[in-house]
Amino acid sequence: MIPDPKTAALSGAGSRSGSPCDNFLENIPRFHYTEKKSVEGGRIMQLRQLVYFATVAEQGSINKAAEKLFTTQPNLSKAIGNLESELNVTIFDRTNKGVVLTDNGKKLYQYARTIMNQMELIQGLSAEEVPRTLSIASYPIITMSRLVSEFYHQNRHKELIIKLLEKRLQKVLELVESGEAEIGFVMSNNVQNKELRHMLNFKDLELHKLGMDTWYINLGMDTWYINLGPSHPLYDREVVEMGELLEYPFVRLPDDYFSNLTHYLEIGGVRLQSFKRKIYVSDSAAIITLLRETDAVRFGPGLSREDLAAYGIRTIPIRNNDVRITVGWVQRKREVLSPEARDFVTGLERLYPPPETE
Fold this sequence. Notes:
By secondary structure, the protein is α+β, with helices and mostly antiparallel strands.
């Protein structure tokens, strides 16, 4: 996170430790698995079955999960077997080293975590002394740091834990899917959008596109600009061409599946893979420093123009640029957002205000 250049740094509070099931398990008594049947004679899936399943998935071992659940290995194995029979699918592959989730098991884990997260919220209604948590996953972008700072000032008198996790697109989706982040801020370009839709569907996530961009009258759309600092020879230009940028180092985050697709994206007839000098960094603070103090360049959305300007970094249009950036936020489907997340989303929606009407 990048602090406002005119204020002191804001540091977030810590997070829960251990397995995601730990806090949930504290409220579940020690028990032996018992099977219930409906009036029609079929089995009824119980919340404890999902806790068993999620714990085995997270431990990667039935023996380790049994220790954590204070039950026996045979009892736990029976519970998992009954769950597989009930669903008529295989959810674990058994190996000599433990168990691993099948594709169906991964889907079930997503649903189980969603249910357990909601139950944790219900159980916490009476625990007013426990601070509320807002957890956001986001592509490293300076604008997000500003929004988190604004959210903090609006809620500074509340007992609240704020977490901002800066990651590439693929990891943002994984953090929201697993429940480690409640919402995720995402941006995807022309060549990534199809794969993004597939992954959102597979992970059972929902994308909410943000409002109108000031440059392109399309829902949730932006484009790429070139970011460069006062040490760069092209700093005073009003527009640049891709060919002019090839001699300068290109600052970027370590690649993931989605960013690898972008290597074949063209701007003005020049592919991104044509850049031979690259600097890989893992956070937005390093990006800001490199842009301010070297002749490095970075591609970024118009969204961050004003935030970067506070650090003396310009956002310059690129000639013949047809790249379109989809901007939005994601959440787990069928899940009700916490009040804190809803408030933060309101701030996100202000990034692209609707056009003024006469």
